[in-house]
Amino acid sequence: MNEQHKSLGEAYNETTYPLIGHSRRNVEVLLEAFQPVDGSQAGDMYGNGAVIEDFQKFMADELGKESVVFFPSGTMAQQIALRIWCDEAELKRVAYHPLCHLEIHEEDGLKELHQIETILLAGEDRLITLEDVQNLNSDIACLLLELPQREIGGQLPDYAELEAISAYCRSQGIKLHLDGARLFEITPYYQRTAAEICSLFDSVYVSFYKGIGGIAGAILAGDNDFLAKSKVWKRRHGGDLVSLYPYIISSEYYYKQRIEKMGRYYEEAKELAAMFNQCHAVVTKPIVPVSNMFHVYFQLGKNQLEPILMDIYNTTGIGFISYLKEASEDHCQSEVHIGERYGKTPREAIQEAFRVLNEKLLEAVQP
Amino acid sequence: MNEQHKSLGEAYNETTYPLIGHSRRNVEVLLEAFQPVDGSQAGDMYGNGAVIEDFQKFMADELGKESVVFFPSGTMAQQIALRIWCDEAELKRVAYHPLCHLEIHEEDGLKELHQIETILLAGEDRLITLEDVQNLNSDIACLLLELPQREIGGQLPDYAELEAISAYCRSQGIKLHLDGARLFEITPYYQRTAAEICSLFDSVYVSFYKGIGGIAGAILAGDNDFLAKSKVWKRRHGGDLVSLYPYIISSEYYYKQRIEKMGRYYEEAKELAAMFNQCHAVVTKPIVPVSNMFHVYFQLGKNQLEPILMDIYNTTGIGFISYLKEASEDHCQSEVHIGERYGKTPREAIQEAFRVLNEKLLEAVQP
């Protein structure tokens, strides 16, 4: 490929050691997960059959909830959770963070399909606090908390604050829903099991293609009545597929492969963030990650930084990040999440690449 | 397993020659489709990437439409099609058959999620006619026709009637949507290509796990503007999965395997229906199938017929049908669709099994 027309993502994908995530999202992800599976194993049929029921039971135990239903996507699962709580309260209003997935990534499905009004709590630059919840001016059926708050670098409240929000919601009859897309990834920081964290919430969504690295798929967890209702809505949304087993089998496979590695990913995220922070004109958010993810901010325009990164990718074989988002004319940012790749990369090679990055940033960014 | 507690479905699955469909719906369906695929092939990402875009382009050509979007399910695809036409007409009313999939199998998703009012045309025992459409008392944004009409045995209007309905809808500004879950299965009877049939409709849904026998998945086809809108609604419904390739690759694989066999399945369905009709107290609907499917009606109660069938399955190794639905105390019915299995079964064995069935029905059903 012509080097001059290569994108940052292409250059990143061509490095020997891309640092982010588990692997390329290619068909090998499926082939590996199905390698141990016998072809005679029956598929699921419209939510029934051992392959889906056993996994749902297994995950219910893992999360300490009565019941679990597997969904094709978190978008579907979470809209449905909020709808059920709104119907139960006979109140079509919920509250969540301004950068909640439902608010910015779902084409307003919650409003367009469910006519649910939303209150945006806190600000785009900070977490929801107990005080925000206590100061609500309107009644709400449900509060959604996203842990970690992805769009601000994956930040987390103190666990005590989380417990206080949970207790307050219970006292007020407000249902508490967890957007736990990255639930497993925060257990090492909180030093709590997934079940302990889930016990603070009435309903929980978890994804299987974030830290777990499956193909796609999600679950809702909660009590039996809630999940029975969710199945009706799953059918209405068109999510009750004749067979979901390609996602279920890969979710289970990668869950069992990686659930014990969340602590390592977290430690490696802290290590990598420290290396970014040691570079001139670079800062991560949070400074010290509280999960396997963080954001990186550069005091340099996207157009200036891209050729610098691509040059380093080319000469060192290390790929730091796969894209840059313009924050302003002379600032840009990206997102990092740790999976299998980082730990397989020689530390000396990473350190050398950061040495070069720092050198080039010192040249490029005048103090 | 204890023979006395076995269900008809279990007994059917244990026969050497079950006659319905392609194969068991087990993991082998996936493994076979992925056997030729190289692991390095990139997956799709939120509707983008060669694996989804190439298949959509291929199917658009097959159906003679500008554009195609792949969906995880037909439930999702069809609700979205009707919503788009209603929004365009600023009229939230559509018409379809009383036994339409949206009316009886989707937990009223169209009404609950889209607030679309429905008019039921024709009766539960017959097809929608041109006259039904002409006699509509209310304006509608869209008419949905299901070809073949599955719940009445897979019946079809004459092609001339279909053309007349299409012309009438166009003259009235009514959008015509095809529930073509089994579109490919009707091309041999109509002696028309899928594209010719689709040309009568503004939007078309096709399934990949009926006659094609994939794992799951569906497409919507139509013009560019319609499909662009459908992608927004797909995101809202939670159907814009990070990766749909397990369904796409299997859909393409089985499409290419089986699209040329639709004529054979149709001929075999007629052959099998004739054998049912030669038995005492049995009649199929239609008498002569017009696709690869038909319904079978028995003038005998479900509880009387089940042990008779199970005994024949056990002694002959032929499995006729996998379930019986009670129609009344002394009538029951089932559904048959032809795939790969029928053609692989020795004809003499089938004929012998039908000889025994007829004998036993003559004993059981007094004239």
UniProtKB/TrEMBL annotation, chains A, B:
Its cofactor is pyridoxal 5'-phosphate. Transmembrane segments: none annotated. GO terms for cellular component: cytosol. Keywords: Lyase, Pyridoxal phosphate. GO terms for molecular function: L-allo-threonine aldolase activity. Belongs to the threonine aldolase family. This is Aromatic amino acid beta-eliminating lyase/threonine aldolase. It comes from Paenibacillus vortex V453.
